[in-house]
Specification:
Blueprint lengths: L3 H8 E16 L6 H11 L7 H22 L3 E3 L6 H12 L4 E12 L3 E5 L2 E5 L4 E12 L3 E8 L6 E6 H12 L3 E3 L4 E4 L2 H10 L2 H12 L8 H5 L5 E15 L2 H14 L6 H8 L13 E6 L2 E8 L2 E8 L3 E8 L14 H22 L6 H8 L2 E2 L5 E2 L7 H9 L1
């Protein structure tokens, strides 16, 4: 079997680095504390008594606005059932409705949230967020002209957190379509492209300004708990990075070569999660005091295995996608693990780190592959052969000390 470097060098037809799934938290900084919430009710809402009833009125007004918009624009509202796969439901409804640059449907789900809870103590209302409660969340499933499928989730209880979920590959597809560049899609990625160089330039150009502009665009078009006058005076949402995936996809000319490549990866790199090897991939010194688990896992999903390497909360994985592409993907779950805060302004820097991690993993795999002979080559060595000159060459008996020394020397 060919080595990892040979398989990469001779059989990869397309290589794309791109921001993959991105989950962002939307938060209102002025409402992060109980004091800020009380100030909001007293000064902005003009309610001298900051009772939980006031928050209830905000929630009810928000719910009514969602219902009114759905009826006015004929947008379906779908109540999610417990443990139902939301992505599966969303894909079905997207196919049925075919909405472009609009709200496809609104999902409603009861989920955990750290919402404010008010109690009256010594004649005054006090608020805490020390417990999680189950409250309604509204999912706006959207098709955006530039970003394609995405959703914005809004919590119906104070402090009314939001979440934005989008995909960098879908954004790149829309940009190619606008420029008239032909491509073949690979589920969440690309199988081929008429202009690979332009595709990579597009993937490189996605920045925090584009994402913030997208977020602001839809905040103006969907019902929210905050009124326009509230947002104008500072009670508006800011974005931080909750989870971010940075991918490198390598498409092979033949499925067989891709499978060979991935089988080599799994067989020869099961020790990459050891501390001494993890630090080669992440360019970080790992000591006994470094927090987190450092391990390699092979996770089997049906007949599809994936190789996972963990550094603190960072998950680096590789898997073979749709029989054609090897996906190397790093997932930031806590950017602070790599010394970067969660602000959206750091997105480009985090993407640079993620790409470097993906590349270093492949570099380590190139130099650490099994240098032994494959089964086919051993078979040729231990059987008699005829040279190109017609001379007979005797077999080398496997197991003899001199033959084994020759194998090891190779």
């Amino acid at each position: 079997m060919a080595s990892i470097p040979a398989l990469l060098k001779d059989h990869v037809t397309l290589e794309v680095e791109c921001l993959d799934r991105l989950y962002l938290n939307g938060y209102i900084g002025a409402l992060a504390t109980s004091g800020g919430l009380v100030t909001f009710m007293r000064e902005q809402l003009d309610k001298p008594i900051p009772s939980p009833v006031v928050l209830g009125l905000v929630t009810e007004t928000f719910r009514a606005a969602v219902k009114a918009m759905a009826e006015r624009e004929q947008i379906p509202i779908y109540p999610f059932r417990p443990k139902e796969r939301k992505d599966h439901v969303a894909n079905q409804i997207r196919q049925q409705r075919g909405t472009r640059d609009g709200i496809v449907f609104i999902g409603v789900a009861q989920e955990k949230a750290q919402a404010f809870q008010g109690k009256k103590i010594n004649g005054q209302f006090q608020y805490t967020r020390d417990k999680t409660v189950y409250v309604n969340h509204y999912y706006y499933y959207i098709d955006d002209a530039d970003f394609g499928p995405l959703f914005i989730k809004v919590c119906s209880y104070a402090p009314w957190g939001t979440r934005l979920c989008l995909n960098g590959h879908e954004w790149a597809k829309r940009q190619l379509e606008k420029k008239g560049i032909a491509y073949e899609a690979l589920d969440n990625g690309f199988l081929s492209c008429a202009d690979p160089k332009k595709l990579q330039e597009i993937c490189d150009s996605l920045g925090p300004e584009d994402i913030d502009r997208l977020f602001r665009k839809w905040l103006e078009r969907i019902p929210l708990p905050m009124r326009p006058e509230d947002r104008e005076v500072g009670y508006d949402w800011s974005l931080s990075i909750w989870q971010m995936e940075v991918s490198l996809t390598q498409i092979f000319d033949r499925p067989l070569r891709g499978r060979e490549f991935f089988e080599e990866l799994i067989r020869d790199n099961l020790d990459l999660g050891r501390p001494d090897r993890v630090q080669l991939i992440f360019d970080r010194v790992v000591t006994k005091k470094t927090p987190g688990q450092f391990r390699t896992r092979v996770i089997q999903d049906g007949v599809h295995p994936s190789l996972h390497i963990n550094y603190k909360n960072f998950d680096l994985k590789q898997y073979f996608k749709e029989g054609r592409g090897c996906r190397t993907e790093g997932t930031f779950r806590h950017p602070n693990d790599l010394g970067v805060n969660k602000g959206l302004s750091n997105l480009s820097y985090l993407q640079k780190i993620g790409r470097e991690v993906n590349r270093r993993l492949l570099d380590v795999e190139r130099v650490s592959h099994n240098s032994g002979l494959s089964g086919d080559r051993i078979q040729r060595v231990v059987q008699p052969t005829v040279t190109a000159d017609g001379e007979k060459a005797p077999a080398l008996k496997f197991g003899q000390p001199r033959v084994m020394a020759l194998f090891l020397e190779r």
